[in-house]
Design goal:
Blueprint lengths: L3 E6 L3 H12 L5 E7 L12 E4 L4 H11 L2 E6 L6 H13 L4 E4 L12 E4 L2 H7 L6 E4 L16 E6 L11 E5 L6 H10 L4 E5 L8 H9 L3 E4 L9 E2 L5 H13 L9
Parallel strand pairs: 1-2, 1-4, 2-3, 4-5, 5-12, 6-11, 7-8, 7-10, 8-9, 10-11
Helix pairs in contact: 2-3, 5-6
């Protein structure tokens, strides 16, 4: 039997779940490789083979796909890992190799929610002083320099790993990894007298508690929209078994799995 290779561009919970399902299928000749960017210390590792680090741009990724006879690529990176997603589209078109996108569904504002949607962290930083004076920022450490020049605002910044500089002059950094439930988020935001939340529309249940807490407190949310998705098959599967089965059937249709292994 020809050995088939599935490359999962991962780092998310959805990517780990997918790798686990494919490995658990126990299909002879199926090689499951998860690629992690290596930007987070002590990442949760998926089942199957794991590679850590970048590919060296589009050409490097295309070369890796050829050298490893990759059959299908699943882009299951974070919804805001835009550069990696763009590289995946270009490299898979060059080889060519089928590509699909696995991304959690975006959050949607509920009745009474005070959302202000923007297209970038820079826009969020410009809007912030008009909405509050004590901000809770959960947009990730890489984008924090956008807030470094904001005056008159105190920041509570939460990241998984310590952020670099520059940072806002008045800030407190909390290092924590989700999930975060709504009650804990409510208590945290009350303790620090937060009056505005800044976040990216990552979607998913693990970090949605802050939105419920903001709604309960009646404070505004500055929400950074996702950029437009590339024209590739898209699946939103936040731990939903039915959607995982759809994904497995898509892989089956491309000859990676035989019916007995699903």
């Amino acid at each position: 039997m020809t050995r088939e290779t599935v490359l999962i561009l991962g780092g998310t919970g959805e990517a780990r779940e997918l790798a686990g399902r494919l490995v658990a299928a126990g299909v002879p000749g199926l090689r499951v490789v998860s690629s992690l960017a290596g930007r987070v210390s002590r990442p949760a590792l998926p089942e199957g083979e794991v590679r850590v680090g970048g590919f060296g741009g589009i050409d490097g990724l295309a070369g890796w796909l050829r050298e490893n006879a990759v059959t299908v690529v699943v882009d299951a990176t974070h919804p805001f890992a835009e550069t990696m997603s763009e590289h995946a589209v270009a490299a898979c078109a060059e080889v060519p190799v089928p590509l699909l996108r696995l991304a959690r569904a975006p959050w949607a504002a509920g009745s009474g929610d005070l959302w202000h949607e923007v297209d970038s962290l820079e826009e969020a930083a410009a809007l912030l002083p008009s909405l509050g004076r004590r901000a809770f920022v959960t947009s990730g450490r890489q984008g924090l320099p956008a807030f470094a020049g904001v005056d008159g605002v105190w920041f509570l910044i939460r990241c998984v790993d310590p952020p670099g500089s520059p940072l806002p002059e008045a800030c407190q950094v909390v290092l924590a990894r989700g999930p975060f439930d709504a009650e804990a988020e409510y208590a945290l935001m009350r303790e620090h007298e937060i009056d505005v939340l800044v976040t990216k529309n990552s979607g998913g249940e693990l970090t949605a508690g802050k939105l419920a807490a903001a709604g309960r407190l009646g404070i505004p949310v500055i929400m950074v929209r996702r950029s437009g998705a590339a024209d590739v098959p898209m699946y939103c599967s936040t731990a939903a078994v039915a959607e995982r089965l759809v994904l497995l059937h898509w892989v089956l249709k491309h000859g990676v799995l035989d019916a007995g292994g699903v």
